[in-house]
Amino acid sequence: MQSNITHPQTNATALAPKGSGAWKIAIIGNFSGLACSDGATSLLKRKHHRVTKDNFDEVFERLNVQLKLPICDNTISFDDIDDLNPDHLYQNVAAFSQYRELIQKLQSKAHFQDAVDQLQAKGLIEQTQTAAQVRGIPPENLLDSVLSSATQQSNAEFSVEALIRQTIAPHIEAQLDPRAEQYVGAVEAAATDLLRSIMHASEFKQLEASWRCLDFINRKLDTDRACHLHLIDANLEAIKKDALEHAANVEASELYRNVIADKAIAGNAPYDAILLDINATPNDAQLLQFFARFAQAANVRLLTGASLDTAGYTSANALLDNQAATAQSDAWLQARSTAGAQNLFACTPPFMVRLPYGAKTKPIESLRFEELPSTSNKASFYLWGNSAYLTLMSLVNKNNSIDSLPFHVTYDDDGDELLIPTTGAYLPASAIEKLEHAGLSVVQSVKNSDSVLIQRWVSFQNHP
């Protein structure tokens, strides 16, 4: 395979599956959350789950998807992909039970005073100053303080009472005659803070993004005649450990034996492509070197995601502002020089998986929830997915354009309309060239459109 592949349509031979039929594709990632990360099952024993339009929900249920987060006192279980939303969290996470009870009482004439008494008993209603001021804690730092404290006491009993007491307080102004709407708004604001913190915990974001990306390509691709998708549920830390232990002998690794060697049986077609659902950073040079060797040994195309800082840029703005790139490390350049790097494709930037929840975008039923905070730094509160999934679609469909992707129409600080494209920023040709020179395969947003382009397939190997 060439190191710099042009449009898929013009290079059909290089991008054809090994056999004469459908593409056989393995997708490796942590799709079960807690159940996979507990280390109970080795990589050697991870099952290959065929995913189709008809059995998607069944596969989800079979994996027993769960998460245990430091800021929650109970394990969160998900029965299907529709459970990966704020309504499910609000109704099923124990920490929200007292929020729900308070709101119900505040909205009931018969129980309003009881709710007020509860707030007073918790010290949330002060005659002259807010509870936050009494405690000497700046209101904007309260939630961070509580969540940090909860994280540190992993072996102690989680105190929902303390969370309720400390997070609602900054949202209530001290008044002698408070109205119900004010208190309901305060409780909802506190619940929003906690809900936002859960949804944007790294573990939850990874889980939701992986499932929604898989759901997208499963709906868009012909999974009967064009490709066969096989999901392999594996924890990233287990993969990294396996890679480091077998860096010198990839074929002895548990992952290689599971995905490649043990499937080399007469009548069992090998994989044509593998998607590794990670977002590689500059610290992952050894990991990508391992997977370059993996791709070489297996004679397979291997796709993964990569952050912009692997090309030396801290953000898209740094790239667009023509800031000087940080030089790639010796370890990174060595990885790019590894035999097999021509079969490895590191895809960037990530893409918007869904619109943020909110009254004007995706309202929820349980409460007035705005996923994006009012602060100026909102980019990290979007749900970004691995663009290797889009590159995979381009590979199977032999089409460099993918549409029906989300983009967000919002407003800047001056009230002017602002469009956030699918990949977060529009990249000019000069910026794309810089990323490609760094060994990245670029997914490009189309101006004022729900589409992206993958103009060139650029491998991870060093380029002149």
From TrEMBL:
Recorded hits in InterPro entries, A to Z, give: T6SS_TssB1 (IPR008312), T6SS_TssC-like (IPR010269), TssC1_N (IPR044031)
Q: Can you give the residue ranges of the TssC1 N-terminal domain? A: 182-397
Protein name according to UniProt: Type VI secretion system protein ImpC
User: What is the native source organism of this protein?
Assistant: Marinagarivorans cellulosilyticus
